[in-house]
Hints:
five-stranded antiparallel sheet; globular; seven-stranded mixed sheet; EC 1.-.-.-; 3 domains; FAD/NAD(P)-binding domain; alpha/beta; Enolase-like, domain 1; 15 helices
Amino acid sequence: MGQPHATAATEYDVVVLGAGPVGENVAERTRAAGLSTAVVESELVGGECSYWACMPSKALLRPVIARADSRRVPGLRQAVQGPLDAAAVLAHRDAYTSHWKDDGQAGWLDSVGARLYRGEGRLDGPKQVKVTSPEGEHHTLKARHAVVVSTGSRAVLPDLPGLPGARAWTSREATSAHAVPGRLAVVGGGVVGTEMATAWQGLGAQVTMLVRGEGLLPRMEPFAGELVADSLREAGAEVRTGVSVTSVARDGDIVTLTLDDGSKVEADEVLFATGRAPRTDGIGLESVGLPDGSWLSVDDSCRVEGSTWLYGVGDVNHRALLTHQGKYQARIAGAAIVARASGTPILETDRWGAHAATADHAAVPQVVFTDPEVAAVGLSAAEAEAMGHRVRAVDQDMASAAGAGLYADGYTGRARLVVDLDREILLGATFVGPSAGEMLQAATIAIAGEVPLERLWHAVPAYPTISEVWLRLLEAYRG
Length: 479
């Protein structure tokens, strides 16, 4: 075999490591401004969201949620009895992931004029990236203005006896599996754990959730996890809280989990949804004085602190591990890179300007696509109090809105506003109930815009909709 072919260094204005939604958005913004941009990707263009997270998980969940909603509608529930067609659901999921082929997204990158380099990219000192292609070719890319790290995050497996040989699922296997397991154990009660428990229980698996804490969705208002746990149990899942897995063993097709109380759980597959780590190991951070595999600490323009040219955008900066927030950061970082490349002054004090990711602090929205849906933005009441705010939590039954009963018989849900009593603005909002995710943008606007409650009083919700709960919440606050 001959020596790998090496090409001469190629110069670009911007080099982006990672071609997920975040990297794609950075490339689009910089290219639209006329900057030459190269994008390096070691897997599939489109990243985690397109192939192993947002898109496949929601394709799995949508039929489950639609059936649950339909069974709550008089005249319809009798028509939707019986199991889901799992094969059809999985085929639909496969279509949404483009069968794990990225031709379309790679073509889109080409259409905006970004140059795609496939292979492993590593920083090699300031403003320089070395790429090794799958064929063994080496490329050296030099950035005139910026290198952007948008390599995302990966699932973390705990250090447990027997786990390496247990063929455990992470979020990737859970969203891409090609058959419904008879029994699925889910370790972890966060977003991935609750969504995948909902999906696979709905598709016919017998799900057992094993949660170390005292409830599900621990980063949200407590009632959110309580309502989701109640619904999972009603659907037939077993939800066990306050337990920890101490060891795992697989014997053929059966995996056995030993718990800290001495009991054992048997399953056909086990999903560990126990946290994530940045995919920054092995990308050469040490060549620019940063620890290998570390989260990247950034300012509000997403520029790595202490650097004039390195940016960390999306999951890698640990500000909000959500695709929509990563794309928001990409818009901010793209604008900042373009401004700095052109010599345009950036006003660091311009809190809501084009170059500051302010919403990452104040108004991060998230929807958990369980049954019922959980939609939250901003701070929980506990978080707000811990930060020193003087707050009042205002609660309402979602069924208090006339539209809720029309949407579904026995509509079950709850809403909370977290009010800053000193400024009389919203710091947080949580809605739990069927279709609650569609309530969230109004709350996000109110929080990001710091809309005074006296002004919100004049934002009249349409009747009869579920959004009428806004009026009930404001009435409860006014007394």
